[in-house]
């Protein structure tokens, strides 16, 4: 697929990105700290990259809106529903 048109490449990259976001939404059991430890990025990183891409294109996108896109709901709602409390030491 070396000679594919740029539009096709962009479509494939976008599809892969949407699949990653969908997968992360479905895997709420995987915590961000585990993602950071194993993959070097987490949902918040992905949201930040999404926001940075918007800004680079002259679009306004808040951190909250970017996180809502990645998490599929407002970040605070996701934390309340899925994030486990830190163990007491």
UniProtKB/TrEMBL annotation:
This is SMc04008-like domain-containing protein. The lineage of its organism: Bacteria, Pseudomonadati, Pseudomonadota, Alphaproteobacteria, Geminicoccales. It comes from the Bacteria. Pfam families: DUF1244. InterPro entries: SMc04008-like_domain, SMc04008-like_sf. SUPFAM superfamilies: SMc04008-like. Residues 30-85 form the SMc04008-like domain. It comes from Arboricoccus pini.
């Amino acid at each position: 697929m070396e000679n594919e048109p740029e539009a096709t490449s962009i479509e494939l990259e976008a599809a892969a990105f949407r699949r990653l976001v969908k997968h992360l939404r479905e895997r709420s059991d995987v915590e961000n700290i585990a993602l950071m430890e194993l993959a070097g990025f987490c949902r918040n990183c992905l949201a930040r990259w999404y926001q940075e891409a918007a800004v680079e294109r002259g679009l306004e996108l808040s951190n909250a809106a970017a996180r809502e896109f990645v998490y599929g709901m407002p970040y605070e709602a996701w934390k309340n529903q899925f994030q486990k409390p830190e163990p007491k030491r």
